[in-house]
Amino acid sequence: MGAHGDTRTAAFEAACQLAAAGERPTVVAVRAKLGGKGGQNAVQAGLNDWIAEAAKRFQLPGLPESLQMAVIAFWDVACQTAKTQWDGERAALLSQLEGRDQQLAERTQERDALERERDERTQALEQAQGELFVAHQHTRALETERADLAQRLADAEARTEQLEQSGAELAARVRALEHSEQRLSEALERSERECDQWQVQARTAEQSVARLEQAREDSERERARLAEALAQSRSNLETGRAALAERETRITTLTDLLERTQATHEAESAHWLLQIDDQRQALSEARERERRWNQERTALLEEIRRRSAPPPINPDREPER
Q1: Is the dihedral of CA 157, 159, 165, 167 positive or negative?
Q2: Is the pLDDT at 87 greater than 60, yes or no?
Q3: d(C-alpha 133, C-alpha 248), whole Å
Q4: What is the average per-residue pLDDT within 281-305?
Q5: Could you tell me how far CA 145 lies from the centroid of its own chain?
Q6: Contact predicate 68/55, CB 8 Å
Q7: Distance CA 232, CA 225 (A)
Q8: pTM
Q9: Any idea what DSSP says for residue 321?
Q10: Which residue has the higher pLDDT, 299 or 224?
Q11: What is the 3-state secondary structure (H, E, C) of 251-316?
Q12: What is the pLDDT of residue 75?
């Protein structure tokens, strides 16, 4: 086989590979697949062989050879047009892709910027939280200090009130002392006057003492006389006590006798009361028997009167003949 036949066979295989890859086998594509080698006629012959083989496989009617070149030319024009459209669309898509890539890059940059901003804000937030914690601690310290100052102020106010109260008490004491001093002066004057009066009364008392001494002597004599009378009274009292003891003995004896007599009388009274109760019971029984007898007698009298009375006359009854 010559070079023409080898190129034709290679073109046929290249067309099969392009079709298997989903590409349209054209002269340009097949020649490019062959690396730009081979003549135009040999490549066209190999492509015709592929078309004929495809027609056989898909049971397509064979094209006349006069139309094959026209179909191939039409196919080349269609493929070229489709390629041109595809290249335009591909360029547009590539342009859009580049725009999208640029937008993606911009979005990536924006995202990176936002992430950096987020990190900065996070760091600022952490710093602010630290400052807030420090401020909170400082606030708590200030509140503690304020509470301490308030307590001190309250204590100072309480001490001030106490001092004011103490001042008022001292002023009242001063006024009381002044008043007491005035009263002491008045009392001193009164005491001087009373001292004079006491001196007069002392002289009067001396005279009274003399009279009392005389009265004491008189009372001593009277007491001696009363002592003698008391001794006599005690003697009489002892005599009276002895008589009283004897009288109490007699009274005790009489009391015992009276108690025994009373016990005897009570026993006799109980005996007589029992007899009286028996007599009363017997009297009640006799009265009951008498009542029953009266009832029986009344019943008998009624029966006798009923039996002795003539029978009643019936006016409707005819007399017996």
Answers
A1: negative
A2: yes
A3: 111
A4: 88
A5: 34
A6: no
A7: 11
A8: 0.26
A9: -
A10: 299
A11: HHHHHHHHHHHHHHHHHHHHHHHHHHHHHHHHHHHHHHHHHHHHHHHHHHHHHHHHHHCCCCCCCC
A12: 63
Measured distance CA(269)–CA(275) in Å, rounded: 10
Handedness of CA 54, 60, 61, 65 (dihedral sign): negative
pLDDT digits (tens, 9 = 90+) for 19-50: 888 788 888 888 888 888 778 888 888 888 88
pLDDT of 180 > 80? The answer is no
Q: Tell me if residue 320 falls in helix, strand or coil.
A: coil
Q: Would you say 34 and 12 are in contact if contact means Cβ atoms under 8 Å apart?
A: no
Q: Answer yes or no: are the C-beta atoms of 42 and 11 closer than 8 Å.
A: yes
| pLDDT band at residue 258 under the 50/70/90 scheme | confident
pLDDT digits (tens, 9 = 90+) for 60-81: 455 566 665 666 666 667 667 7
How many angstroms separate the CA atoms of 230 and 224, rounded? 10
Q: Which residue has the higher pLDDT, 55 or 1?
A: 55
Q: Which has the closest alpha carbon to 40: 17, 72, 64? A: 72
Which residues, at least 6 apart from 31, have a Cβ–Cβ distance to it below 8 Å?
Answer: 11, 37, 38, 43
Phi and psi of 59, rounded to 5°? Answer: 55, 45
pLDDT of res. 6: 82
Query: Cβ(7)–Cβ(38) under 8 Å?
Result: yes
Number of helices (H), then strands (E), belonging to the chain: the values are 4, 0
Task: Reply yes or no on whether the pLDDT at 271 is more than 70.
Answer: yes
Residues written for the chain: 321
Secondary structure in 3-state letters for 96-150 = HHHHHHHHHHHHHHHHHHHHHHHHHHHHHHHHHHHHHHHHHHHHHHHHHHHHHHH
**Alpha carbon distance 119, 288 (integer Å):** 133
Identify residue 31 by its one-letter amino acid code. R
Single-letter amino acid, residue 164: E
pLDDT of residue 321: 44
